[in-house]
Amino acid sequence: MLVLIAYDVSTIDKAGRSRFRRVSRACQDYGQRVQNSVFECRVGKTQWTVLREKLLNEIKPAEDSLRFYFLDSDTGIENHGCKILVDGVEGGKEQKATLRV
To answer: Which domain holds residue 93?
Structure first.
C-alpha cells in the first residue's frame, strides 16, 4: 500500500523536539521524505501495522497531529491528535474521512 504520512509535532520544548526526531526517523525507515514533515511510504500490511503503532506511540495527541493518506485504496484519511480540520470539524480525537480530490 502507498501511504502519505504528514505530521505536526510541537517543538516548543526539548521533549517535543525529541518526539519530532523520533517520528521523522520512523518515517525514514519506511519511506521517502517529500517535504519537511511529509513522507511517502510503500509498505506491506505487516510493515504498516508496525509503522502505524510506532508513530501513534510517539505522538502526544494533545499537542501533535498525525495524518495518514491512503493513496492506493478507498480508505481515505486517518487522523490522530489535535489541530485537525476535516469536513469542517476541528479535531482533538481520532477521526476518519474520505479523501476528496
So the answer is: 2-97
